[in-house]
Amino acid sequence: MEWWIYPLLVLAGFMAGFVNTLAGAGSVVSLAVLNLAGLPLGVANGTNRVAILFQTALAVGRFKKQGKLEVRPHLGIILSAVAGGILGALIAGQVSGAVLRRSIGICMALTLVPLLLRPTRWLEGNPEREKKGAGPVQMISFFLVGVYGGYVQLGVGVFLLTALVLVAGLDLVRGNAVKLLIAFCYTVPALAIFVMNDLVRWDLGLTLACGNMLGAWAATHEAAKRGAPFIRWLLIVVVIAAATRYLFF
């Protein structure tokens, strides 16, 4: 392994951790660098989970300290997402790279629709819907997002935020904190499954994790300072970039 891969991974991890914490799809950067390091897509997918685990753990702790994260009201959707994440990790590798790449691009493009329409729903949330708790629609929605996250991780933050705001009724800032908690919870068993299948390169994963944690630390500060409008516009930029990359390049 060339020496310059390690500092490059720290830089890529910082960028990915920052974008993942505030929006999603930061794994576009980390997966690209892991591929550059010579890892096959399956191993890069598993190795990336090491960084995601550390990044989400740090970000959850920061949001909890800032008083922006409540756990108990969201246990139902968290457990649904974890179940989906386990299933997604178990079936990882069954879909061809070409099909997966195109489907990610299409899903990203479709996510732009609710982001661009009726922005007040993203900024303010829906308190009445939030009070209803985890009904069948929410449980199924978060299970399916968990399956996707367990399988590929890339862009799952965008889908989680979409579900948390439009289905669960949270505003963007609190939804972002819950998103990270869900990602942490399903990443634990997903990473274990990738490890059992020998799809993790630990030295590269831990190097990437250093950058991810630095990016997450910086991003939680920005989230608290700038609030929901900043997160929404960052989401739009990230989604357009990711959709373009996976549909046309």
What does this structure look like?
The protein is built from 12 helices and no strands. It is mainly alpha-helical and 249 residues long. It has one domain (5-248). Helix 1 packs antiparallel against helix 2 and helix 8 (136-151) runs antiparallel to helix 9 (156-167). The longest helix has 25 residues, at 41-65. The two termini are 27 Å apart. The mean pLDDT is 82.
Strand content: under 5%
Low-confidence stretches: none
Q: Could you give the distance between the termini?
A: 27 Å
Structural class estimated from helices and strands: mainly alpha
How would you state the average pLDDT, rounded? 82
The figure for the number of domains is: 1
Q: Total helix count?
A: 12
Computed Rg:
17 Å
Series of secondary-structure elements, N-terminal to C-terminal: HHHHHHHHHHHH
Assembly category: single chain
Quick one: how many beta strands?
Answer: 0
Largest sheet: none
Overall geometry: globular
Q: What is the helical fraction, as a range of percent? A: over 70%
List the helices and strands and how they pair.
Elements: H1 5-22, H2 27-36, H3 41-65, H4 75-90, H5 97-116, H6 120-124, H7 127-131, H8 136-151, H9 156-167, H10 172-196, H11 202-226, H12 228-248
Features:
single chain, 249 residues, mainly alpha, 12 helices, globular
